């Protein structure tokens, strides 16, 4: 995440050491957020790191209850060698590999169609596809859960596979997330497309490029930075997948209590009270998310060169 | 793969060479334009149906009784039962649903107003004022955007339990105030909307820095403020993981958590189904109304957040 501190120069002019009050006001205006950031993000991260090095053990003969014991990286090796964690990782990887291309493909297609001159009433189309974003994840999970359920929703009979069975549940969850987030990305891409300079498009047309050709070799490359930022946020979001599978658990036993990494953390912490292991898993999840977003940004920098 | 452009009136010069080399006369060109217009609208209709049908299902289902819910087909209207469902919803468990509505409004409404104000102040300070640790704060904030909230939930829970804050209003309210992305947005808005000359002029007139922020900069940043407010409202309204972890007292639940808890009972007690569905409708409607009314705000906000 490299965002240049711009307007450095003007800011430099403003910042004269002879203005201590300005410095004081700056600190005062920034302080509430700085305190919140410290207390609800930095301290918890540090605490998770610390916790992940300890394990609760029964002390002595077990008469004194549990005691925190320093176990170094044992929690990390536990998580990294836990078959349940591997399954969760596999599920989330497969989920992301299907969800991201499907959603981005769909969102790009719709944004390009809205951007093409043949379409009228663009506001209404884009508002319609955006609406699912306004639906809370729990509610989206419940709506689709009912729609997948036999005797209640139409999908169970209409689909060739059981959307709540072991073969179908992954695509069902992919569908729930795609439904919620596609419209949001349509708006992002559509807004970016509208900023593509007219002259460039007219030049392409003058060179004889058709609509599809213009879309593929002019429009999409020009909004590439936007697509990569969206890709980064989608990747982070995908890794955290929790609400939809959690809600589906009440509809089907196919979704296990450790189906995704976030469910794994929840189970370790609040079902097994194994805080050390849950903290280690949290740290690993945060690390994975940081690495993946760095990778996406790297990729975007290389492409745009 | 270059079909003739489907876009509307082209300047005559452009029309000449490539289109005609493929021998497209006026008639078939027009026909092709009609088919492609049909295809484009066909795809848009499908996308709209996909997005909206589940919501329509929510509306039709909230009007059904328990029996009709599983006996009638999904989109068909049965006997109109909406008002019975609503009065059941508000009567169940001594009207706990009222608490859930109040809590959601408090968590999301108060949280979004306060959170957006905190973000705007900090974004403005980073963009326009100097103070010790400014660069550090900016880089930590940008890193904070990338930290997944689910990884924070467990340590937050344990910290809150040390402070005896678990199962209180504050355990959910305070962490949700922190919005690093909002600060990033506010900084972008401050850079774009507040000219340094205006600030300098106000200073020459002898205005204090705090007064400058509240009476000059904040009004100039109002569109950004509203955007941050709207998105933070949605984020808090939709949040599930943190309340699930922090709260055990149903009277403190936000709507999403309460409805989820009822849904886990519906398998055993089918009479919870209409309550879950009607409750879901009530949880969705305010947000949809907000998004329809505030279209201009969020459209500009989404684009501002994705430019860099």
Automatic annotation (TrEMBL), chain A:
Residues 89-296 form the ABC transmembrane type-1 domain. The chain crosses the membrane at residues 24-50, 92-114, 126-148, 168-193, 222-242, 278-297. One of its GO terms (cellular component) is plasma membrane. It is found in: Cell membrane. GO terms for biological process: transmembrane transport. PROSITE patterns: ABC_TM1. Keywords: Cell membrane, Membrane, Transmembrane, Transmembrane helix, Transport. Pfam families: BPD_transp_1 (PF00528). The keyword Transmembrane helix applies. It is a multi-pass membrane protein. Its main location: membrane. InterPro entries: MetI-like, MetI-like_sf, UgpAE/MalFG_permease. Belongs to the binding-protein-dependent transport system permease family. This is Sugar ABC transporter permease.
